[in-house]
Amino acid sequence: MQYTATVSRMKAAGAPPRLSSFAQWADRHFKWLLVAPAVLLILALSIYPLLFSLVVSFINYDFQVPGHGFVGLKNFERVVFDPVARWSLLLTAWLSGVSVAIEFVLGLLVALTMVRSFPGRGVIMSILIVPLFISPVIVGQAWTLLLQRPFGPTNYILTQLLGQEVTIGWMTEAPWLYVSLIIADVWQWTPFMFVILLAGLTAIPPNLYEAAELDGVNAWQAFWAITLPHLAPMMLLALTFRLLDAIRMFDTIFIMTGGGPGTRTYTASYYLYTVGFTQFHLSQATAGSWLFLIFTALVVTLLVRRLLKAEPV
Amino acid sequence: MAAVAPVRRPKRRSIPVGRILLLGFFLLFVLWPLYWMFNTSIKPSDDYLTVPPVWFPSAPTLVHYEAALFAYRGLDGLINSLIISLSATVLSALFGTLMAYSLARYNTGGQHLSFWVLSQRFLPPIGIVLPVFLIYRGVGLYDTHIGLIIAYTVFTLPVSVWMMFAYFRGMPKSMEEAALVDGCTRWEAFWRVAVPLAAPGIVAAAVFAFIACWTEFFFALILTSRTAFTLPTVFRAFIGFQGAQYGEAAALAIVSLVPSIALGVLAQRHLVRGLTLGAVRG
C-alpha cells in the first residue's frame, strides 16, 4: 500500500510518526475526501431533484388540482398531444440550428481575419469577446432598445439606407421576430465560435502553408487541404458546445417577445416554464422536462461521444 | 473571397480590403448595441421618440441611473448579486479544486466520475429547476440567499472541476512527490505545494464561475422573488412597457455589465479553456 510505503520512508528518513489516528484515516481515504463535497452537492441538487421530478411526473402535482395520486402516463400524454409542445420543440431545433450555423460561418470568417498579427489586434480581440460576458437578459434588452417600434432606431436607419419607408414590427410580426431573436443570439455567441476556432487556427503549424506555397497551391486549395482538416476537431467541439447551449434558449425570448405573439416564440424551455410556473401544472411540466432531457441526451450521445473519440487536442 | 486567404503568409501583396471590411463590419455589429444602450441610459426622456433619433444626447443626465438603482430596486439586486455570486464562486472554486486534484492525481473513479461531472454541464436547466423549486419550497430555501448560493455552486461546479482538472494534469507531479517523500501528508502535499502552484488556474476558474453566476437569469427567476432577487431578474420590471422605462433599463444594463466585462477581459488569456471546460488549451 502506498500509504505504508510513505510511512516507512518517513521513518527511514528519521521523521517522527506524528499522525493522529484521524489524520491517518483521512490520509488513507484522501482521494475520496477530496471529491466528497462536490459529489455530495451534485447528488443533492441535481441527481436527487431529477429523481424527484421523475416521481412527480407520474403523480398528480398541480396547484389547480388537489391531491398527489398516481396517474400513470397521463402527464406525458398531455405534453405529447399538446400541439404547442410539438411546435416549441420544432422551433427550438429550428432556431438553434439556424443561429448556430450563422454563428459558425461568421465566427470562422472573423477568426480567419484575425490569425495574422497586425497593429491593434489585441484591442480588437478584447472588444470582440465582450458579448460573452454579458447576461443574455441584457443582450435581449439591448436589442429591444434597438429594434422596438417606435423607439428603436433600426427602422429609421433602414429607411435612410433603402430610400423607402420601413416600418417593421421587429418584436411582433411573424418572420421578423425570429430574425430578431436570431440576431440577438448571433450577436452574443459568434465570439464563442470565433475564440475557439481562432485557437484552432493558430495551432496549425505554419510550415504547412509555406510548403504548400512552394508547391504553388492557391489560397482556396490551401484552405481545403490544410485549414479544414486540421480545424475539423475544433469545429466539432465548438458546434457541439454551442448547440447544447442553444437548445436551452430562454432568456432573450423572455425579455424580447415573452413567447408571443400568442405562442409563436415558445421554445421548449419557455413552454415548460409557462406550463409549470404560469399555469402551475407542475407534474405536466416535469414530465415534459424529462422528455426534453431525453431529447437532449440523444443529442449529447450523438455529438459528444463522437467528440470524445476524435480527441481534439 | 479575400477573407479565406491562407494564414500567416509571409508575403504581403496588397491591402486586404475584404478582411478589413469584414472585421470593420463585425466590430460595428458588436459595438453598436452597446453604444446605443449607453446612449439611451444618459438620454433625457424627451429625446426618446424624436425623428431622426438622437445619436449624441446634447444634455446627458443621470436620472435614469438613479431611478433604476433606487425606484426599481436595482441597488438591492446589485447587492444580492454580489453576495450570491461571490459566495457561490468561492465555494465552487474550492470544491472544484479539491475534486479536480483528486481526479487528476489519483484518477479517482476512473473516467466515469469525471464524465459524470461533465454531463451535469449539459443538463437542460429546466429539468433541474422545476424539482429544485418544489424541494426548496418544502425546506424553506425558496427566495433565500443560501438557496441560490447552493444552486449556483452546483451549477458552476462542472466548469470549475474541468478547468482545474485540465490545469492539474498540465502541472508536473514531481514537486508533490518530493513533498510526500519528505514526510508531508497527502493533504499537505496538496494544500502547501500543489495549490500555490495552481493559483493562476484557480483564479481563472473562479473568474469564469463568477461571470456565470453574475449573468445567470433562469434559476434566479424561478428560485427567488422579493428577497434574494439578483440583478438580471430586475429587468422583468421593464418588460412590456411602451417607452417609459427605456432609460432605466439601459442604465441598469450598463451598471450590470461593467463588472463581468472587466473581469472577462482581464482573464481573456484563459478564455478558451473557460469556454471549452479545459478541453482546449488555447
Quick gist of this model?
Chain A is mainly α.
Q: Could you tell me how far the N terminus lies from the C terminus of chain A, measured between alpha carbons in angstroms? A: 34 Å
So how many helices of chain A?
Answer: 14
Name the helix and strand elements of chain A from N-terminus to C-terminus, one letter apiece. Answer: HHHHHHHHHHHHHH
Distance from N terminus to C terminus of chain B (CA atoms, Å) equals 27 Å
Q: Write down the domain tally of chain B.
A: 2
Rg calc of chain B? 23 Å
> What is the helical fraction of chain A, as a range of percent?
over 70%
Overall number of strands of chain B? 0
CATH topology of chain A: MetI-like fold
Task: Explain what this protein looks like in three dimensions.
In chain A, about 40% of the residues are buried. Chain A is built from 14 helices and no strands. Chain A has one domain (about 80-310): MetI-like (MetI-like fold, Orthogonal Bundle), CATH 1.10.3720.10. Chain A is mainly α and about 325 residues long. In chain A, helix 5 runs antiparallel to helix 11 and helix 13 (about 270-275) packs antiparallel against helix 14 (about 280-310). Chain B folds into 2 domains: about 15-60, no CATH class; about 65-275, MetI-like fold, CATH 1.10.3720.10. By secondary structure, chain B is mainly α. Chain B has helices at about 15-40, 65-70, 75-105, 110-120, 125-140, 145-170, 175-180, 185-195, 200-215, 220-225, 230-235, 245-265, 270-275. Chain B is built from 13 helices and no strands. Chain B: Belongs to the binding-protein-dependent transport system permease family. Chain B: One of its GO terms (biological process) is transmembrane transport. Chain B: It is found in: Cell membrane. Chain B: InterPro entries: BP-dep_ABC_trans_perm (IPR050901), MetI-like (IPR000515), MetI-like_sf (IPR035906). Chain B: This is Multiple sugar transport system permease protein.
